[in-house]
Structure formats: structure tokens, C-alpha cells
Amino acid sequence: MSEKSSNFAKSNISDMNRVLQKLFGFDSATMKVRTEVQAGITTFLTMAYILAVNPFIFSALNDPEVTPGAVFTATVLAALLGTLIMAMMAKKPLGLAPGMGLNAFFVYTVCLELGYSWRMALTAVLLEGILFIILSVTSVREKIANTIPANIKYAITAGIGIYLAFIGLQNSGIVVDEPSTLVTLNSLMTPTSLLFIFGLFLTGILVTLKIKGALLIGLLVSTLMGIPLGLVHLDGFMQMPDSIAPIAFQFQWQNILTWDMVAIVFTFLFLDLFDTIGTVVGISVVSGNVDKDGKVDGAGNILLADAIATTVGACLGTSTTTTYLESASGIKAGGRSGLTAFIIAIGFAVALFFSPIFLAIPSQATGAVLVVVGAMMISQIAKIDWEDMSEAIPAFLTIIFMPFSYNISEGIMIGMVSYVLINGVYGLFHRELLNKVSPLMWVLAVIFIARYIIRG
Predict the structure, then answer these.
(1) Most CB atoms within 10 A, among 104, 140, 234, 413?
(2) For 319, which DSSP code?
(3) Is residue 183 classed as helix, strand or coil in its secondary structure?
(4) Higher per-residue pLDDT: 434 or 388
(5) Is the pLDDT score of 102 beyond 70?
(6) E strands of 223-325, at which residues?
């Protein structure tokens, strides 16, 4: 290559790096495009289960307008646009999609248990998203995230790790229901269990050997192994997406000022607020996106992007769109910038037309990856000050209540209430620690306690 051609190539690379830096916060000095791409693919594949689960949950409505095809398309578009917003606004390696738990609350609680229409529930999600935007713009949401004590943040990360592992074990069929003990170990000799075990040890070995893209390799090889076991079936390769016209922008404005709407919006707001804060804090600790004072770097933009994604998702016709825990898998694979999120969005764009292929990924393959990611995240538990019981007890409660209640927000709320009560009383006996608990922590604790009283 001539010197002129070499200089031209270097110039093009430099220009590309500047574009990537401006769009996605990509730093060519500390990041590699190949690693960001691998991380994005890894996160997308661990999130892909929502493309099958969300239509399944909405099918419980038994409404002829809310077809699985329409919900699938809305789910993909909400994930695609939400993740793009995160990539370009916050420039963080986080994927978004309609949230698990929040979709169940939408369908099973608001619609089936309380008897409201899906249009009213969809309107509540829209209003929740708008309120989130207001809270994010005024920095209230960021202040809530930054007021969480450092040890509670480490506990949130560890708790999420256990919670992720539990989801992986449950979705893989390794842990099943048991009336007398709630859960028990299933047979390990079934094809599903064997595929999970294969994926778990393969991924674990690859991670131990520090092989680049270990999580992605483990996921793909496990999927291939599912074919001879009869667990992976391909019903075609490509199909055009169904229309979202029957469910998009189907809001019920006549109920906007009713007490019922206020109650539903508040519940959506509460659930999404603390699920998102827990996820963002936990993942940020893993990625090193937390400063020496324990504050999440760029939390304002992350939370604002999440809020806008919720509003966009409601307009498309699906439940609350939120930041995904599974983003941790891509971060552990090396993703650090919005370029990772952009690749996740591309994955959803492809899935829109090739849904039969992406929906063929078995839960045992993603489950094995989630367990390994859980093992990685729980390492943060070593940073907790276990000698100081005023810090240790709230941290421990935060960790155990996430998987045991199957709810991230419950773990955060119980952990923070216990932190305020223990340290508040402790401060009465040690005046120098009287200001250890911030005023905002006290306010949150009162709100949490009131919630439990009202709910109970």
C-alpha cells in the first residue's frame, strides 16, 4: 500500500471514530468496535425471549384486536426505538424492551383482576411515561437514584445477580414449583436440563478462560446443540411483520381524570420507577459507571431515555418499556458505549422480519447465560461493609428480598426502609451519625411504609 493510500485509510478510520464518538460516546482509545458489536449481539440474544413472552402474556386478554402478531410487532418496535434513544441520548450500552413484570401487571392485574379495558391500561402507561419525563427533566428521578447509600447499591447489584440466576433456572425448567417448599430441583436427566447444563458449563469454561465473546459463543453453541435434542424448531425463516394499527394509539381519554386512572398510573409509576433505578444502579456498578461518591455517571440521561421509551412504547400499543437487566450480559462481554445499544437495536430490526429464527432460541440457552451473569454480578457483595451491622443488615435484606419476592423494587424498598430505621435510631445514640440518613431517604421511607400499610 502506498503512503498516500495508507494516509487515506487512516483518515477514514479517524473520521469514523469521530462519528461514533459523537453519536454513541465511543472512545477509540479504550474501546474496540468488534467488542461493542459482540456485546450488542450478546445482549440482544439474551433479551430475545421477550419477543415470544410478551405476545403470550397479552393473549390472555382474549381480545380479537390484540393479536399475537400485532403485539409481536409492537414489542419489536418499542424495543428498537427505545434502545436507539438510549444509544444516542444516554450513549450507554443498555437495551430496552417492554418489561417483564410490568407487562404482567398490565394484563393480569389491571385488565383481568381489576376489570379495566386494555385501552385504559395503555393510557395509564402513556401518562406514566409523561410523568417520568417530567421527573427526569427536573432531576428528581436522578436525585432518588443518587441518594441510595453505597452499600445498598452494591447489595442491589448482588441481589439482581441472584434474581437473574433464578430467572435463568426457572425459565430453563431446572427449578420448578413444589407445594411444600415453594421451589425444588427438577430432574437433570431431561433433554431440557441437559441442554441447560451443557450451556452452563460451556459458558462457564469460556468465561474462566477469558475468551472474548464467551457469553455469545456459549449462547449460539447451546442453540445449535438444541437442534438434535429436538428443542429448537425452525418454522420458516422470514415473514413480513403484522400491522400494529389495531393497538397503536388506542387511548381511552374519557377516563383520564377518574380516581381509577390516578390509582393505576401511580402504581405503574411506582413499579417502573424502582425497577428502573434498581436495574440502572446495579448495571452501572458492574460497568464501572459509578464515581467515587457512589453516584451513577450520566444517570439523568439514562433515566430520561428510559422515560421517553415508555411513552413511545405506549403509543405503539404495548406495556411499559424499560431498561433490561439482561444488558449486564453485554456489559460483561465488554460493551461500554451507545454503540453496543445501537447493535442491540439492529438485532431487533432484523427480528422484525426474521422472527421464526430469533424465536427459536431456547430458554435453556439464555438461562445458562443468565446464571453465569448472575455469578459475575454477585462479586459486588465483597464490597459491602459486613462489619458495620447498620450497613450489613439493610444490604442483606435488599439482596434476599429481590429473588424471594421475585421483585427488584420490593428488595430496594425493604432495604431502604430498614436502612433508614436502623440508622435513624442508631443516630440517636451516636450524635455524630445523626445526619447519616438524608432527608430524601426519610421521605422515601415514609412513602414506602405508607404503601405497605395501604396495600396490606
Answers:
(1) 413
(2) S
(3) strand
(4) 388
(5) yes
(6) 321-323
